Amino acid sequence: MSALELTSKNFNATIESGKTVIIDFWAPWCGPCRAFAPTFEAVAEEFPDVVFAKINTEAEPDLGAAFNVRSIPTLMVFREQVIIFTQAGMLPKSGLQQVVHKSLEVDMAVVHAEIAQQEKVLTVS
Q1: Mean pLDDT, the chain, as a whole number?
Q2: Active site residue 33
């Protein structure tokens, strides 16, 4: 399955879909972004149950700004509407495969418990 083009119109629905979503923030003028694109597409084919998506930061600057993207390419992984991984720079195929595998192994109950604890601390302070 090829990567989905994310925009401000379909972003929330995609993140709220309940699937793991891996996003590549990129721009057409970015050489490393263009070099990484075939790797991103190839790994997307290997994981049909994961949503691979791309955000063109030139066309969607508000999305890039909302997630504090300072350099491209930048990868982010969302599970259950939570960012569980972010990294600037391109990865080799094996590195991206490893990110996908490790992201799928994350115990989201633990993540949500940690978030709840942090929110509790913030409200007490």
Answers
A1: 93
A2: yes
